[in-house]
Amino acid sequence: MPDIWSEALHELEPRLDKQTFDMWLRPIRLSGVEGDLLELHAPNRFLKEWFETHYLDLALDELEARHERRFAVKIEVVEDLELPARDADERANGRAAAAQVEPTPAPRREYAPAPAPALRRQPQPPVGLHPRYRFGTFIKGACNELAASAAMAAADEPGTRFNPLFIYGGVGLGKTHLLHGVGHELHRKDPSMRIVLLSAEQFMNEFVTAVRNNEFDEFRTRYRRDCDCLLIDDVQFIAGRDRTMDEFFHVFNALYESGKQIVVTADRVPADMAGMEERLTSRLNWGLVADVQAPDLETRIAIVQAKAERDGIPLRSDVALAIAELVPSNVRELEGALLRITAFAELRGAAIDAEFVRAVLGKGVAGERSPLTIDTIQKAVAGFYSVRISDLKGKRRHRGISRPRMIAMYLCRQLTKASFPEIGMRFGGKDHSTVINACKRIEALQADDDDLRSAVESLRDQLNAA
Q1: Domain ranges for the chain
Q2: Structurally, what CATH architecture does the domain formed by 135-292 represent?
Q3: pLDDT digits over 291-337, tens only?
Q4: Which of 102, 358, 365, 418 is exposed most, by the fewest CB atoms within 10 A?
């Protein structure tokens, strides 16, 4: 049988840039063919895994187009595999590649129509993209509007607007959904775009593997040269890991200077990441920093209804309202609650109504309290000191206004997960340094001012009991 693998590679070579082809496809050699099974050799495990993840499907599609059958592949790592001489390729300007694939001219004439359908087929989405996490399935509301709009804009104009884009927020609020949405939209618009999506933990593990196996060149090629868009989830994971932070810093610089889009998610703003290098924190703040907050009631209702429609579950509006009221936390718990209700209804043969929802979810959430919000704290402080909320958000510096404002900022920092910049934004767009100074001042004054300490404790007890 002719070297069908070399024939396939010969057809793929013009469709990839030379550096990519030489790095990731040329070193893969055919060892043998048994029926529909191709036995291939790779020179190292890193190259094997990268090829399997990003180029194997493309090669199999080419083989299927040429031979009208689907092949299976088994790849074995052979560390002493002789690699092709790249300098010979460059000197001969392609003669070495032709020499490796001696039967190429005849098969090319025999299979001349094959490349056209292969070129028309769209490459598969990048590995790791969740098929359901698209912009079309994301429910926008006041709690996430900025982050969602920024993600869509970044996908529309990658590398130019909102680069880097940093999205932060609590667990289950939609950060990962938006991250995957960017990847899906970029792939839809340009299937040839090389999109790398992974968590910060995966980035660290791959870096450690590259260090252990002395595979720096392959690692850096993947993230610095073979990447048009980098999507990193939970970047806070690398904080305090010095060598990983250093490598990510250089990857960030290489991509940013090349105009490549970078989107990063985390559970807090860069300034609040203990152990994160200052130079990396600074770069993460270069673009737009957008937050996603816990969904309000209207958004929670829309999320429940969308989930029910997607899963084919008939749901009345009063039932969706009951679920949204009983599960105030995040998207994942909302969807989990709907699945729980549906399962109980099927097991008991009961109709799903508001009373049934309260019976199923009541025990699980009746004792839970909704998380405190900045709005709740502002209302409590304004009522306690008989001032208007607009005064707390305003610029007046009268002591009767500035002291309650500082107390409200202090309690927001103490009782919520909001960052200094977020608190400042919710108090009339004040700078985060103003919030930091307010918190430090109230903390210090309580040591000597019994009345102030009593007022703060009273407000704290009132809010905790709410």
Answers
A1: 4-120, 135-292, 297-365, 374-465
A2: 3-Layer(aba) Sandwich (3.40)
A3: 888 888 888 898 888 888 888 888 888 888 888 888 877 788 888 88
A4: 102
Taking 90 as the threshold, does the pLDDT of residue 361 lie above it? no
Domain covering 4-120 in this structure, CATH number: 3.30.300.180
Rounded to whole angstroms, the Cα distance separating 391 from 395 reads: 8
**The architecture CATH gives domain 374-465:** Orthogonal Bundle (1.10)
pLDDT tens-digit map of 216-237: 889 988 898 889 999 999 999 8
For the chain, give the secondary structure using H, E and C: CCCHHHHHHHHHHHHCCHHHHHHHHCCCEEEEEECCEEEEEECCHHHHHHHHHHCHHHHHHHHHHHHCCCCEEEEEECCCCCCCCHHHHHHHCCHHHHHHCCCCHHHHHHCCCCHHHHHHCCCCCCCCCCCCCCHHHCCCCCCCHHHHHHHHHHHHCCCCCCCCEEEEECCCCCHHHHHHHHHHHHHHHCCCCCEEEEEHHHHHHHHHHHHHCCCHHHHHHHHHHCCCEEEEECHHHHCCCHHHHHHHHHHHHHHHHCCCEEEEEECCCHHHCCCCCHHHHHHHCCCEEEEECCCCHHHHHHHHHHHHHHCCCCCCHHHHHHHHHHCCCCHHHHHHHHHHHHHHHHHHCCCCCHHHHHHHHHHHHCCCCCCCCHHHHHHHHHHHHCCCHHHHHCCCCCHHHHHHHHHHHHHHHHHCCCCHHHHHHHCCCCCHHHHHHHHHHHHHHCCCCHHHHHHHHHHHHHHHHC
